[in-house]
Design goal:
510 residues, 3 domains, six-stranded antiparallel barrel, binds adenosine-5'-diphosphate, binds magnesium ion
């Protein structure tokens, strides 16, 4: 506070001085920018009442002849004649217990206004706990902005921004710092494109593992419905009925679900048990179709493979990455496996108070899509996974399972999930449509600040800061995503060079 300079005085063009929103006339030579924090002294308590700047613009007396001069190309470069107006809205002041309060007393007209220095900004933004991570620096005063992990787990986190704005860098940086704390936060990362590999190099094999998604697959958990979805069969088809019967027989025999075992029990399926009245040959035909489908199924393992347990892995590593980038299998199968894994993690956290983790979903629309707006996989697989993700978004935090979602398109992610995670937001530049969506969730003051942000800069708001007001932060990266090994430019350069190397003989196409 001491040493903070007076940058101007409150002013009103109408003569009325309200205090939830103030206009300041800037003093000559002073500077202030959108997003900065400024304050006035509380009229009774002499403490800073903080405001955040939302608009800065020059104001000049209207001159009738100016328009005419401009037409002639004559400009009057007369700054002397104009003033800078600053509009700001109130955050409030902190009482003895450190609680934020709104100013209730009137401010006298032309009250002096100070630029908030590091001390004041820190008092209003620094979380109190020790278990916190650095995010970046506040652009107005260079103060380090830190986030409280307790809240990032308890109330989840949303990291958003359009393509190339720095979302993944921010997410990976937050993971890296949180997993380095004492005690380290554990992470289960669902990595769609293999971008989180750089964490493996940083933490080494003892602390971080990457597992191909199929290694988590537990066939015994897979039900009849999943197979119908995989094969694209209707429930009332004979093939479905045969399959169902065979699965039941296998289960009651206590044998493991493998292709070989399932095909073997198929021959014991009897037409009478199914109410099948036609000739035996036709039933054999259906059985053959089922055997064929089973043989090519991706859900049913060939042999008895031991599925990895995500909970075991999380107990032994700080970071577990479920890699979805390998294999050409379809999304409906990935959905089934992710749902299994997340359910297993959440159930364990419900049962064991000594277990917890943060689940990070990169490109959340693949796992929690808004109905009708984004569709991969099958309707069944989507619904099943969505219900698990929703459950974790609503009840995970209080049971030690935080959810961090990263997304470029807010509108395509299911509403409840976005709203739950939006208790903490790190928002990079957004498209207009998504800005509007975000405005509905967190308010217009936040969206006003967004404007155009360069990559790596973000507006941050949430319970993980001391006061729930937006801050403008330059994210300091700790680690970068393992991006694709090549860029489009490189590919085309290589093709051009390859052509130069080859003799220019024309290709004969036969
Ligand atoms: N905080 C940052 N500071 C500097 N450069 C950054 C920062 N965040 C991202 N970048 C750069 O911006 C580009 C896009 O980052 P990335 O995290 O992949 O974006 P997104 O995941 O939103 O598509 C990368 O080249 C990265 O190096
Ligand atoms: Mg990314």
């Amino acid at each position: 506070m001491d040493g903070d300079e007076v940058i101007g005085h409150t002013f009103s063009t109408t003569g009325e001085y309200l205090h939830d929103q103030i206009t300041v006339v800037l003093r000559k030579g002073r500077e202030v920018a959108k997003g900065d924090l400024i304050y006035v002294l509380h009229p009774k308590r002499r403490r800073p009442v903080v405001y955040q700047v939302v608009r800065v613009y020059p104001h000049r007396r209207v001159r009738e002849y100016e328009e005419f001069l401009l037409k002639e190309g004559r400009i009057v470069p007369d700054w002397e004649d104009s003033t800078i107006h600053v509009e700001a809205y109130q955050w409030g002041w902190l009482d003895d217990l450190g609680r934020l309060r709104a100013l209730r007393y009137p401010l006298p007209p032309n009250t002096p206004v100070y630029k908030a220095g590091r001390e004041v900004v820190a008092r209003f933004t620094k979380p109190e706990g020790e278990w916190r991570i650095l995010l970046g620096t506040d652009l107005s005063c260079g103060l380090e902005v830190e986030l409280d992990l307790h809240h990032l787990i308890r109330q989840s986190c949303l990291i958003c921004g359009s393509v190339g704005t720095g979302k993944t860098t921010t997410a990976i940086t937050m993971v890296c710092r949180a997993a380095s704390l004492e005690p380290p936060v554990r992470f289960f990362i669902v990595d769609k494109d293999g971008e989180y590999g750089s964490l493996l190099e940083r933490f080494g094999p003892g602390e971080a593992v990457r597992v191909p998604w199929i290694r988590f697959f537990k066939p015994s958990d897979i039900g009849y419905e999943d197979f119908l979805a995989e094969f694209g069969w209707q429930r009332n088809w004979w093939t479905s009925k045969v399959l169902r019967r065979a699965l039941r027989m296998l289960r009651s025999s206590g044998e493991l679900l493998t292709k070989r075992n399932l095909i073997r029990v198929l021959q014991f399926v009897e037409g009478e048990d199914l109410g099948f009245r036609k000739k035996g040959e036709e039933l054999e035909d259906y059985k053959r179709q089922v055997a064929n489908a089973v043989a090519y199924s991706r859900l049913i393992p060939d042999d008895d493979v031991e599925a990895l347990d995500p909970v075991e892995l999380l107990r032994r590593h700080r970071i577990v990455i479920m890699d979805l980038s390998q294999g050409r299998d379809t999304w409906s199968q990935k959905h089934v496996v992710i749902a299994q894994v997340l359910k297993r993690i959440f159930t364990e956290a419900l049962e064991d108070q000594g277990f917890g983790c943060v689940i990070l979903l990169e490109e959340a629309m693949y796992y929690a899509p808004q109905r009708g707006l984004f569709e991969v996989g099958s309707a069944e697989s989507r619904v099943r996974l969505l219900s698990v993700v929703k459950e974790i978004a609503t009840n995970g935090g209080r049971n030690g399972v935080g959810l961090w979602i990263v997304t470029q398109r807010l509108a395509t992610v299911e509403k409840t999930v976005v709203t739950q995670c939006a208790n903490n937001i790190v928002c990079h530049a957004l498209e207009d449509l998504d800005k509007r969506r975000l405005g509905e969730i967190v308010g217009e003051n936040f969206v006003d600040l967004l404007g155009e942000l360069p990559p790596g800069e973000a507006i941050v708001k949430g319970t993980a800061l001391k006061c729930r007001f937006p801050l403008w932060v330059k994210v300091i990266p700790e680690l970068y995503p393992s991006s694709a090994t090549t860029t489009p430019l490189k590919r085309f350069m290589e093709m051009a060079q390859a052509m130069d190397r080859e003799e220019q003989k024309p290709l004969t196409i036969t």
